[in-house]
Amino acid sequence: MKKFVLLLLLSLGVGSVVAGEREITFTSSYDRSTQPAVVYLPDRMPQNTKLPLLVVAHYMGGNRFTVRQQGYYRECENRQWLLISPELHGKKTAGPTSCAALPAQHDILDSIAYMKKHYAVDAHRIYIAGRSMGGMMTEMMIAKYPDLFAAGVAGQGISNMLSMTTTPGITKCVMDECGDPQQNRFDYQRRSAVNYAPNFQYAPLIIWHGTNDTWVPTAQSEELFNAIVKYNRFQLPVYYLTGACHCEGNYTAAWICDQLQYYRNQGEVDTDVFTRFFPELELVTDEAKSFFWLFLEPADKGRFARIRARIGADGKLDVRSENLARIVVNLDLLAKGTKITGYRLHTDGDTVLSFKRGDKAVTDIAGDTTRGAF
């Protein structure tokens, strides 16, 4: 009878009845493939309470089970956090060498969607962490989804694939996944967090590196920090672990969770928006996607698109864009009291700027469009 009740509860999606590690699968939103992940549920999960979610991205050569040995289960148990670690699959190769590919990015997104569907996730406290290739993935996810994550901790990640000098083994793995860097230059660039430096103004990234790392040189973290600090004067300096090499455990799961625990992805109480709110955004994207109150669609999919958008005190929206075919402003995601009464669009191409509320287009906001370089 007890076994029957347990099976019934699981079939109804009541995942909190079984603590510890669970293996799950989800359907990739990128290519519709079935992808595996491991979930860790803390014991004695409080009823009717939303819990923080930690996403752990595995390193090169690792897989979804790597998280078992890294100490995260104990930390999530002690802190009453949910955890998921997906198997990151690449564009040309399997998870161990996926190198922050678009399919792997969607594995992260899909794993979060799975957790939100099956468990009580505190969407204000979704964290991501990883080292080596997992650090590279963490950097990319914070850059491309600053409205999703409360914060991320990235260790020893490759931030610029084109400037990377490393061991022959890693070079071969990168070449297998990404191909020749001269023939596939943009594929290398779009996986490199340094090219998204403006985006790091909107979600915290904590970076660490071992100073004796001969596999991924400290120059990778230095270059990323120097790029980010041009846009974000509050960017924390790189945490260096003196004398540490690449394959050590280095900073522990406890230290990493300590860095994350205070961050919340939420605005002021009087803004009436769910996430952090910024009336001014400067962003880079490699694909069509949303950022906060903007949806951006590149014109040329073989290069980056850029935008600077600012809502002034007078209600005028000033936009400068490069390589964007379409910009949509979601009025529902603006802070309470923020109104757009008109716009000025400066674009380098045939960009269409539109507004929506709910599922309906808003057509009574007029503006001017001029052409010119970004």
Describe this structure in words.
- It is a single chain.
- The chain is built from eight helices and 18 strands.
- The protein folds into two domains: 17-260, Alpha/Beta hydrolase fold, catalytic domain (Rossmann fold), CATH 3.40.50; 280-371, no CATH class.
- The chain has 374 residues and is of the alpha/beta class.
- Mean pLDDT is 93; it is low at 1-17.
- Helix content is 22%, strand content 29%.
- The protein has helices spanning 2-11, 72-79, 102-118, 133-144, 168-178, 185-190, 219-228, 253-260; strands at 20-27, 34-41, 51-57, 82-86, 121-131, 151-155, 205-210, 239-241, 280-285, 289-291, 294-298, 305-311, 316-322, 324-330, 342-347, 352-357, 360-362, 367-371.
- The chain has an eight-stranded mixed sheet with strand order 1-2-4-3-5-6-7-8, sandwiched between helices. A five-stranded mixed sheet has the order 9-12-13-15-18, with no helix packed on it.
Task: Supply database-style keywords.
Rossmann fold, 2 domains, eight-stranded mixed sheet, 29% strand, 8 helices, disordered N terminus, alpha/beta
Topology:
Elements: H1 2-11, E1 20-27, E2 34-41, E3 51-57, H2 72-79, E4 82-86, H3 102-118, E5 121-131, H4 133-144, E6 151-155, H5 168-178, H6 185-190, E7 205-210, H7 219-228, E8 239-241, H8 253-260, E9 280-285, E10 289-291, E11 294-298, E12 305-311, E13 316-322, E14 324-330, E15 342-347, E16 352-357, E17 360-362, E18 367-371
Parallel strand pairs: 3-4, 3-5, 5-6, 6-7, 7-8, 13-15, 14-16, 15-18
Antiparallel strand pairs: 1-2, 2-4, 9-12, 10-11, 11-14, 12-13, 16-17
